[in-house]
Each structure stands twice: as structure tokens, then as C-alpha cells.
Amino acid sequence: MLSWSGLENDTPMDIGQIGEGRAPEQQWGDELHALASAAVDLDDEALARARAALIEVAGVPATIDAAAVAANFEMMTRLADGTGARMPEESIAGRRSIIAATRMTDVTSRR
Predict the structure, then answer these.
(1) Nearest residue to 98 via CA among 13, 7, 10
(2) HSE (CB half, 13 Å, CA atoms) of 56?
(3) What is the pLDDT of residues 48-94, one digit of tens each?
(4) What backbone phi and psi angles, to 5 degrees, belong to 106?
(5) What residues have CB less than 8 Å from 16, skipping those under 6 apart?
(6) Helices 29-40 and 60-83 meet at what angle, rounded to 10?
(7) How far apart are CA 87 and CA 96, in angstroms?
(8) pLDDT of 4-38, one tens digit each?
(9) How far apart are CA 14 and CA 76, in angstroms?
(10) Distance CA 41, CA 81 (A)
(11) What are the φ/ψ torsions at residue 44 (nearest 5 degrees)?
């Protein structure tokens, strides 16, 4: 979604850079990464700081869009977990490069 959104807004994203934890070459890359990280860390103070930093550099509309993307992913994850759905192996195989670039395997489940 992020890469598609970036293309639609003439702001292409390099998923690999963002997966490294910093993306200074991307417009608002560091701030977007901080917001996404804080959103899943359950730290209200860090989230408030990250949100304020993104508003400062990107404005309120872009920050709302970023928060909506994060909320949408959280919703989809909860729905999948709640129903017991698992991604088919063939789908995972087709996404291995994105999984590796974003270091999704390094994320620890809160379950």
C-alpha cells in the first residue's frame, strides 16, 4: 500500500530503505518510520512525538493518511488473527523479497 500510495502522490518509496529503519532519501522517511514503529510499540508518548514530528514536516493531511494506513494494517491483522486465517505458502513465496526488505521476520508477535 505504501509503495502504491507513494507512486500515486509522486513520492515513490524504497521499501528496502524503510525496512532498514531509516529512509532519509525518502520524503519524510524517518518520520514515517517513527510513526509506524510507535504505533505498534504501545507507547503513547512516543506516538505523540512521532505524530507531531510528521505533522511538522508533512502537514496534517499526510499525517492523517499515514495513520489511516497504519490503522488499516492493524485492522486487517486483527481480522485475520480473529478468524484464524493464515496466508497461503504460495502467497508468502511471492512476497519473499518484500518480507526480506522490510525485515518482517524480525518483528515479534504480541501474542
Answers:
(1) 13
(2) 9
(3) 999 999 999 999 999 999 999 888 888 888 888 788 887 788 877 77
(4) -85, -10
(5) 101, 102
(6) 40
(7) 13
(8) 666 676 766 666 666 666 665 667 878 888 898 88
(9) 23
(10) 18
(11) -60, -35
